[in-house]
Task: structure prediction
Amino acid sequence: MEKVRKIVSLSLEARAKAGIKVRQPLLTLRVKSGPNHESLITLIKDEVNVKEIIFDANLSEPVLLDTTITPELKKEGQARELIRTIQEMRKKLGLNPGDEVALLVETDQKGQELIETFRSDITKTATLQKIDFAKNVSGEKVSIDELSFTLKLRK
Result:
């Protein structure tokens, strides 16, 4: 477990140096040596938010994080940021984790495409009954990269 903590710590340090938030998924983490138990590898993936861990005994450093953000990874990171925002809104409203609510969204075509791509993840993670798109929504304005949303939760 000490080895897992060290790998996670070094990987998060590399993220911080690169200026990449943990909510932004990355493709690979190369590790010089590490645990060979699948549950520990899964734990590292979750903590560092990487899709794949590659063991490479030839590394000169203990860990090497691939900081390349593909368009797909960027969209996934934007969806996670949107989910985090919705969760904050739920908290401000005093909702319990099991309380299902509807989300009303005003956004442009790109924002709508992002929500449609990740609709099931957003709905499940934020415990939403449904997501509706509308014009002139009076709610919380949110910007995520170049995307802008106006969000309102309804019981």
